[in-house]
Amino acid sequence: MMIDKRLIGMVPESKKYVAGNVLMQWISLAANVVLMMSITRFFASLYAKNMTGKDFAVFSVIAIMAVAVRFFCAIGASRMGFLSSKKVKKTLREAIYTKLLKLGAAYKEQIKTSEIVQVAVEGVDQLETYFGAYLPQFFYAMLAPLTLFLVLLRVNIPSAVVLFVCVPLIPAAIAAVQTWAKKLLSKYWGQYTALGDTFLENLQGLTTLKIYQADAFKNKEMNEESEKFRKITMKVLTMQLNSITIMDIIAYGGAALGVFFSVTQYQKGGVDLAGALLVILLSADFF
Fold first, then answer.
1. Closest Cα to residue 282, out of 65, 39, 78, 67?
2. 88 in Cβ contact with 72 (< 8 Å)
3. pLDDT tens figures, 238-274
4. Nearest-angstrom CA–CA distance, 163 and 250
5. To 10 degrees, what angle do helices 53-103 and 113-129 make?
């Protein structure tokens, strides 16, 4: 689920909070870029031994202002996420309860009210995360690399291009893992539901099994089903760890490439010391 237009259409008021969240994160990124530029120039001046008292005062003011902006942006982004989640919760819960009232008491014949409420609460909680965290991060994750690319393009073109090209490899890797995960998860949920059905059936018929002395056989059967479920669970966990490992390799590998190119460009004279340090400090923010 990347962008669900139907969900967004149900809570159109959340768009402004999502946009506000993204804006807060972007301003924080811009403040971080300014801070990193100030730090790199500070160290370059120290290295060149031409640092003055005025330069140090300017650096201190810029650093304090940048940190303050990032602090308030973090609070603002958190606030926007809260307001978005609050609006989603209110709107969707009203929609669910209105639907239940329209259905009347007839739904109780097929499913318990407690089960409906549980599913509804879990669904609303997931949608709160979707609107309050996922959507803002989704858009920010596309905006941040583009912003950093434009900034570093003025510093050193090869380093900026390498970092920018590595960014799309992460969603490509995620898509590849998801293709494998769908097949594995279908087996997982099939085994999960089968184990649950078998356990419930044996529990309900435990008295009968005891009478006919078939409980030992069913116990052995349950152990075999449990072992199958344990193995498929281990495969799911392995898949998750592998996906995280792949993304980390791409992220850290891309950042390392950016650092490598900045160092080689500095050695060749393609970028000054401040520019090379800036690429190194901002390379991780691409991912």
1. 39
2. no
3. 777 877 888 888 888 888 888 888 888 888 888 888 8
4. 11
5. 160
**How crowded is the C-beta side of 91, counted as CA atoms within 13 Å?**
17
Rounded to whole angstroms, how far apart are CA atoms 287 and 281?
A: 12
Domain map (residue ranges) of the chain: 1-139, 155-287
Rounded mean pLDDT, 49-78: 90
Supply the DSSP string of 73-110, one letter for each residue.
HHHHHHHHHHHHHHHHHHHHHHHHHHHHHHHGGGGGGT
pLDDT value of position 108 = 53
CB 41 within 8 A of CB 273: no
Q: Residue 4 and residue 9: Cα distance in Å, rounded?
A: 9
Q: Quote the crossing angle between the two packed helices 14-48 and 53-103, to the nearest 10°.
A: 160
CATH 3.30.200.210 holds for 155-287? no
**Host H or E run for residue 12:** none
Report the distance separating Cα 18 and Cα 133, nearest Å.
Answer: 9
CA quadruple 3, 7, 10, 14: dihedral, nearest 10: -50
- With 0-12 / 13-18 / 19 or more C-beta atoms within 10 angstroms meaning exposed / middle / buried, residue 235 is middle
Model pTM score: 0.71
- CA-to-CA distance for 149 and 161, rounded, in angstroms? 7
